[in-house]
Amino acid sequence: MNLKKKESEEHSSRRSRLHEILIALINQQKDLELMDDGVQVFKNPINHSEKYDSSKIIERNQRIIKKYQSLVSSAIVLDALLESEQSDICD
């Protein structure tokens, strides 16, 4: 039982650390965008009769998702480096 509890606490601790690192990385971003829900009207549409350009919204959202994925990956790598440093210090 104690082993499962310890593993659960370590998982919770790591998850909290990952969140903190991710939030720190997000705070460093100057132009971090949020995804569009398809309602936003672009300022200079190609065809003025159409209010929405679905392909531009999709491309923009894909770019934003890739940016967030990059931030999450960076947080995971930084966390692994921190954990590695801590285990080196303990050894």
Can you walk through the features of this model?
This protein has helices spanning 2-28, 54-90. The chain is mainly alpha-helical. Helix 1 crosses helix 2. It is elongated, with a radius of gyration of 20 Å. It starts with a helix and ends with a helix. The mean pLDDT is 82.
Uncertain regions spanning at least 5 consecutive residues? none
Number of helices: 2
Binned strand content: under 5%
Shape: elongated
**Cα-based radius of gyration, to the nearest Å:** 20 Å
Q: How many separate domains make up the residues?
A: 1
- The structure class reads mainly alpha
Number of strands: 0
Order of helices and strands: HH
Assign a percent range to the helix content: over 70%
Largest sheet: none
Distance between the termini: 26 Å
